[in-house]
Amino acid sequence: AKRRGNNNFEWFTQDINDKVERHVLMRHEIQEALKCKQFSLVYQPIFDQNQKICSVEALIRWNHPVQGVISPYEFITLAEHTGQIIPMGRWVIEQVCQDMLQLQAMDIPTVSVNLSPLQLSRNRFADDIKGLLAEYQIEARQIVLEVTENVLVSDLTNASSILNELHKQGFRIAIDDFGTGYSSLRYLQELPIDILKIDRSFVCDVGEGKKYEGITRAMLAVAQELQLQVVAEGVETEEQLTFLKTQDCEFYQGYLLALPMAIDDLARFCEQKMQA
Ligand code: C2E
Ligand code: CA
Ligand code: CA
Ligand code: CA
Questions:
Q1: DSSP class of 261
Q2: For residue 260, which atom of ligand 1 is closest to its CA?
Q3: Among 85, 164, 177, 189, which residue's CB has the most CB atoms within a 10 Å radius?
Q4: 122 CA to centre of ligand 4 in angstroms
Q5: pLDDT in tens, the chain (276 residues)
Q6: Other CB atoms within 10 A of residue 164 CB
Q7: Strand partners, 198
Q8: Where is the EAL domain (predicted)?
């Protein structure tokens, strides 16, 4: 019989090769996808306490000709590694600009866009986005930029200067997945932040006697103290919604209230809501 060590080694290199090959392939396919317009956006509503839609979050989808719809969890990280997140992110913002008139007709005043740290770290980002807005005659205050705490940890000085510039232009800034990063809370005071989005991992475990009830309550208190708006992400049950409402959380997003939808479905959703 062959020595086991050898076999293990073979398996190991085999795995690496597969991974590298898969990434090379994916990189090429993303290139194609950008060229052939295989990406699309879905919009998930964010509701206020009166169940009115106050905003929507733009979420990217990859409609692959063979694999079907691919989740961003599968390709965003790779696109960040290859730098393809730059053209991809620009496409997202341009698509949001193109959809803005239709969203305004639905009485939706703002759209949230997810930014990856790499996009934000580019010097040209502020100018790029300003150019797009001018082209489509859209005002900065109609756009919420969602960034995660990781952006701040890696390079606080740079993040701070670009966020300040964007905020001065009128963009609103949201901290995404709040509570899951490793940064101190000091940045909340020092950066121009308007909104905190409490991560789903906390929201899915709130309610009488549940594990994250205390932490969620504390996050809401911090937000209130600093006069930040709060969105609870990933609300899936009535129990969660009720708990959040009793804690004076202002805004909600999650499958219980609405799924992410293509823009035409969103229009129908809004129309039905008006008639209800
Ligand atoms: P995220 O920014 O935290 O977005 C929320 C994710 O949670 C979305 O997944 C949404 O579909 C999902 N979600 C919403 N409500 C619920 C719920 O009640 N329960 C559960 N289990 N999930 C819910 P999605 O669309 O698959 O996006 C995943 C992540 O990919 C996003 O997380 C974001 O980090 C990233 N992403 C999506 N679109 C973009 C984009 O255009 N640019 C960048 N840079 N990242 C994006
Ligand atoms: Ca987000
Ligand atoms: Ca999030
Ligand atoms: Ca996330």
A1: B
A2: 11
A3: 85
A4: 21
A5: 344 444 444 444 556 667 777 788 889 999 999 999 999 999 999 999 999 999 999 999 999 998 899 999 989 999 999 999 999 999 999 999 999 999 999 999 999 999 999 999 888 999 999 999 999 999 999 999 999 988 887 778 888 999 999 999 999 999 999 999 877 788 898 899 999 999 999 999 887 678 888 999 999 999 999 999 999 999 999 999 999 999 999 999 999 999 999 999 999 999 998 887
A6: 14
A7: 178, 232
A8: 23-274
Instruction: Give the other-Cβ count within 10 Å of 71's Cβ.
Output: 11
Q: Which atom of ligand 1 is nearest to the CA of 60?
A: 38
Centroid of ligand 2 to alpha carbon of 21 (angstroms)? 30
- Chain Cα centroid distance, residue 261: 15
Which stretches of the chain are assigned E, i.e. beta strand?
Answer: 39-47, 53-64, 68-70, 110-114, 143-148, 172-178, 195-198, 229-232, 251-252
Q: Name which residue sits closest to atom 27 of ligand 1, judged by CA.
A: 72
**Nearest atom in ligand 1 to 72's CA:** 30
Pocket, ligand 1, Cβ cutoff 6 A? 44, 59-60, 71-73, 76, 89, 92, 114-116, 176-177, 200, 234-236, 253-255, 260
Cα separation values, 208 from 43, 212, 213, Å: 31, 10, 7
Residue 183 burial (CB < 10 Å; 0-12/13-18/19+)? middle
The closest residue, in CA terms, to atom 25 on ligand 1 is 59
- CA of 1 from ligand 4 middle (Å) equals 48
